[in-house]
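@channel sequence for tomorrow's demo:
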Amino acid sequence: MQLGVIGLGRMGGNIARRLMRDGHGCVVYDRDAAGVQALAKDGAKPAKDLDDLIAQLSAPRAIWVMLPAGGPTEDTIAALAEKLSPGDVVIDGGNSFFKDDIRRAKALAAKSLHYVDVGTSGGVWGLERGYCMMIGAETPVFERLEPIFRTLAPGLGDIPRTKGADARAEQGYIHAGPVGSGHFVKMIHNGIEYGLMQAYAEGFDILKNRNLNTLPQDERFELNLADISEVWRRGSVISSWLLDLTAEALAGDAELSEYSGVVADSGEGRWTVQAALDEAVPAEVLSAALYARFRSREEHAFGEKLLSAMRFGFGGHVEPK
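structure tokens (generated this afternoon):
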């Protein structure tokens, strides 16, 4: 298939590269000309602006927008809506708020354009590992774009198969439902991510502080956190990719000295807590994990440094200055 890709940052560029490796054609655009040229060297067709990108795509077009949620995505989709032709599809693969997806889809439908929201997980590792995708779309539009999703998904890999599981879900992508549902599922995914990361951070903070001089002498332990994280990767019930990243970070610097412990939140945690409030669903762990990130901007414990290390590990996220 042919796809336009707008936004060639940490994930957008590698999405285009993974598609091209499987024979798909990509026309790419980014305000950073260097990013465009880098993709052109890998085989993509470069575009100098939105009009040029659209002109190089055959109708009906499909354009994947991979930009930060909010203004950049909003402005780009609004501009595309004025330039595209009936039957074209706009895909938002970033972390937009699901209610924004529903609103945008209605606006595009009035112009006979289609809208797809793709909750995309995989971070900076997606080129090699593939991307886990949760997709909100009209069924015919989803089916039309499915070759793209199949290529981007991780595939079966070596994970044991689940009896009765949906074949698409086993490959690493799902049609979650109508527009908005993909980003809603990804929003909850990221809320859970907050909770998991916070649990690791608090646990390792307790381990690190076991040698405090306020404790009885015979109850103090000087624990090797790198060894602990590594052994927990091997057959433990709490093994995970986040723990893999934790072990790697601690092996490189047991004190995590390059991190301040200031932990950002990108919006999905807040939206998850708001959804819990809307549905009257108790979400104590996810709420507490969000509040811990707020606290990290005022005081910084070792646990917050570990959160920063994990965020950098899976997504290349840099601490705010």
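heads up for whoever presents: The mean pLDDT is 95.
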